[in-house]
Amino acid sequence: MVKAIRFCYLISIPIFLAVLSYYYALMPETVSVYFDANGLATYTVAKGNFFYACIGIFALTNGLIMLYRRLTKHAVDMSLIDFSEMNKTESNYHWFGGLSLMFNVCYILSIVFIGLYHSKEKFDITDYAALVYLGPIFIILWIFWFIYLQFTKK
Description:
Blueprint: H1 2-26, E1 30-35, E2 41-46, H2 47-72, H3 88-117, H4 130-152
Antiparallel strand pairs: 1-2
Helix pairs in contact: 1-3, 2-3, 3-4
């Protein structure tokens, strides 16, 4: 499972960059990011600021998790690939790798939703509302996996 999580994480990086680049090219010069109860935009940002904010958040979260993993790598037996064979420190180390993946998936889905919302094509955006909920659901499920690991490890 550890290798599958690592592979998916490594694949999520170029997918994030490709999705961000694709939707950046399609976005209007101002991107609405906050709406009132009537659905009217109350806060907009420039297209370039949106792009750099996405890159910054992506780099910050992945960088912090990578920093944690680099600092704790010395205490982990990297030959173990099954969570059932790991102690608490090793499972936490690999869990944080999966957390990076979950954040990246959340970012990808959010960018797709925002890109579809601002698309020149007339999509019924309510058909894509699930994209907004999938990312946080994945993160919450990953947190429950962390809790499970904490109670089952010695």
